[in-house]
Design a protein that fits this description.
The complex is a heterodimer. Chain A is mainly α. Chain A has 17 helices and six strands. The chains are: A mainly alpha, B alpha/beta.
């Protein structure tokens, strides 16, 4: 036993898969201890905030201001407001307004903005320009106001007694705050999703639920498959015929279609994560049963089984002691595959909208489903679906690696 | 064969077929066999002649297609697990391949303890059990202290087969079915094992069915011999009678096939 475990950890593939998988497990276990937010708490008003560090504007205004003389600050400010695309759009307007193209230089910011403020007229209609495009230019004009000014901004507050605006503070262009001194900041490493929930917290919770679904489904499938395979293989005869009839029926029916039909008929309200796991488990035991049966058939006429019979052992004792240990390694590999395919099946079902009901727990499949419904892939909000995809891929990849690693250990012919 | 001797085990018209239709093979074809008390009977035949199938039918590990087995004059009934276990207290076996005869997950102690339990020694004190196991091991020149807590695959093939004999020593069955017990063993260990087997037989007076492909071995150990070809007994009788004056050509061929050191092989009969 100890020897086998040493052998297992000498296989590079198994070790790699095992480390990836245990890293995922450790994150799933320890992350909730540090971030105590509910995974389904809605943080953001709005959809798909990009990943980044969020600093409270109100708090940063009242924080101590430090004056830093950074030479490229102004250039960066302009570049952030006036992108390359905007410069080309300005040129397009100016050309349409009748300024010769040779006089326009998109690299000279000051000259370009001077020409723009001299010529832009929101009421002027340019032939062939859509309303949306005109509105874009109006928005652009507003955002460019005061871009090149070196003056600071004034902060005013309404006095509740006199109802008049009173100047509270001024913010200079060279003022900086230390993020550590701002009372409220929040790191959203993966941004927010369509409901404004923190994707990272949600992803960790979803990974946990998906792993649970996978484990429950895999265990159920392996248990059913193992029991039926052992009975059919060892006892044989009529019992074998009946079990193989049912198994062949399940083999012929496409499992995923069956899964969809069962999930659909259960109904949205009854579909919890556990129900889905049981349904997946009940539809995916077929291959385990067939494989175990054929292994048992090759084992049941071996001499050690005959000797055990001659030693007066009961059928249960023989199955548990003389058959099961010989196929245990195989069953463990089947279990690992069943778990990873259970996770994939849940993701598949949930993408189709047939996963667990949405109000209680997130799962990896549900997160994909939400991202798809709110068109994250069209809007380019990669943080809503890419991390989920990577997580699913890593889980199944690590499990398959462990499986091939185990295969190499248990089947010496595959060792390289 | 004197008439006072009791018939222990007899088989009447045993037939065993595998498969159906075109694939149907008749492994054992209408075989009669009488086994007298205390006798050593050899069943000799080449590979595929149905020896092992017949032995499994006699052991009750597989069911015959037709025919009956009588044990001590009564038709054998092994329809339930309890009756089978009762039957197996009387008949035991040593298998051909010692390497596949043991469950590799069980230690040697448990193999021997199973035998003590089967003989009703389940509730004996532990010291008594160890004493019995030590006695059984020393009977076959093994040291129990060295074997305890070891796994069967840590032994050599000869040691494993001797452990099998120790097992039989503990079980003391009335009939022992030895299915080519020495065919996977090297020639040096072979003689030791055969001697131990015959020694055990002398001590317990049990009846032995010796299955082998080696007619020389059969002559060495047995009182009477059955020659088996393609599922049938073609010749039977006392060992001296059959082997020294063979009548059937198949028997003659078997005798011819025994390798001899002092003369060239007659390959014309092969």
């Amino acid at each position: 036993m100890k020897h086998t475990i040493q052998q297992v950890f000498r296989s590079g593939k198994f070790v790699l898969g095992f480390s990836i998988f245990s890293a995922i497990l450790l994150i799933v276990i320890f992350y909730p201890m540090f971030v105590k937010d509910s995974p389904l708490a809605i943080l953001g008003q709005g959809t798909f905030f990009p990943p980044g560090i969020y600093v409270n504007v109100y708090d940063s205004m009242s924080s101590t201001a430090y004056t830093l003389n950074l030479p490229d600050a102004a250039a960066k400010r302009v570049a952030n407001k006036l992108s390359e695309e905007d410069r080309l759009s300005i040129k397009e307007w100016l050309v349409a307004a009748g300024i010769p193209e040779s006089e326009i230089d998109t690299t000279d910011t000051a000259k370009l903005l001077g020409q723009w403020s001299a010529n832009f007229d929101p009421k002027k209609s340019i032939p062939g320009m859509t309303n949306a495009r005109r509105n874009y230019f109006i928005r652009l004009n507003t955002s460019l106001k005061g871009l090149l000014s070196t003056e600071g901004a004034t902060i005013s507050q309404t006095n509740p007694e006199t109802n008049e605006l009173e100047q509270v503070d001024t913010v200079n262009q060279k003022d900086y705050v230390n993020v550590g001194e701002v009372a409220n900041t929040r790191i959203l490493l993966l941004g927010t999703d369509n409901f404004g929930r923190d994707i990272l917290t949600e992803l960790v919770a979803a990974t946990r639920v998906s792993l649970q679904i996978g484990f429950v489904a895999g265990l159920i499938a392996t248990l059913i498959g193992l029991t039926l395979g052992l009975l059919a293989g060892y006892i044989g005869g009529l019992i074998d015929d009946i079990i193989m009839f049912v198994t062949n029926l399940f083999t012929v029916i496409p499992t995923f279609v069956l899964l969809i039909l069962i999930s659909f008929s259960i109904g949205q309200e009854q579909r919890g994560a556990f129900t889905i796991a049981v349904v997946i488990g009940l539809t995916s035991w077929v291959w385990t049963a067939r494989a175990v049966r054929s292994q048992v058939i090759s084992l049941r006429n071996r001499d050690h089984v005959n000797l055990s019979k001659l030693s007066g052992h009961s059928i249960v004792h023989i199955i548990l002691n003389d058959i099961l240990p010989y196929i245990a390694s195989y069953v463990i590999m089947a279990l690992i595959l069943q778990i990873s395919s259970g996770i994939l099946a849940e993701a598949g079902l949930s993408i189709l909208g047939l996963g667990p009901r949405t109000t209680e727990v997130p799962t990896l499949g549900l997160m994909m489903n939400w991202a798809m419904i709110y068109q994250a892939h069209i809007l380019g909000n990669w943080w809503a679906y890419l991390p989920v995809l990577v997580t699913i891929a890593l889980i199944t990849f690590s499990m398959n690696l462990m499986n091939t690693g185990l295969d190499q250990v248990f089947n010496p012919a595959l060792r390289d | 064969m004197t008439s006072e001797k009791k018939i222990y085990l007899s088989a009447k018209g045993i037939t065993k077929t595998f498969g159906f239709g075109r694939q149907k093979t008749v492994a054992v074809d209408n075989v009669d066999l009488d086994l007298y008390e205390g006798e050593v009977v050899s069943i000799v035949g080449e590979s595929g002649s149905g020896k092992t199938t017949l032995s499994k039918v006699l052991l009750g590990l597989i069911n015959q297609t037709s025919g009956d087995v009588y044990f001590q004059g009564v038709k054998r009934d092994i329809s339930t697990q309890a009756k089978k276990q009762e039957y197996w207290k009387n008949i035991q076996a040593i298998f051909q391949d010692p390497f596949s005869s043991y469950n590799i997950f069980n230690k040697i102690d448990s193999v021997l303890l199973d035998c003590i339990n089967m003989r009703g020694g389940r509730y004996l004190p532990r010291e008594k059990k160890i004493e019995m196991m030590t006695e059984a091991c020393s009977f076959v020149n093994l040291k129990f202290e060295e074997l305890t807590n070891k796994y069967p695959f840590e032994l050599s093939g000869g040691q494993m087969q001797r452990l099998m004999i120790a097992r039989i020593f503990l079980l003391k069955p009335k009939i022992l079915l030895a299915d080519e017990p020495t065919s996977m063993i090297d020639a040096c260990s072979r003689a030791t094992i055969l001697d131990e087997l015959m020694h055990l037989r002398k001590e317990t007076g049990m009846t032995v069915i010796f299955i082998t492909h080696d007619i020389g071995l059969a002559y060495y150990v047995s009182d009477s011999v059955y020659i088996m070809e393609k599922g049938r007994f073609v010749e039977s009788g006392s060992a001296d009678g059959v082997i020294l004056t063979p009548h059937h050509p198949y028997t003659r061929r078997l005798i011819n096939d025994v390798p001899k050191i002092y003369e060239e092989w007659d390959l014309s009969t092969v």
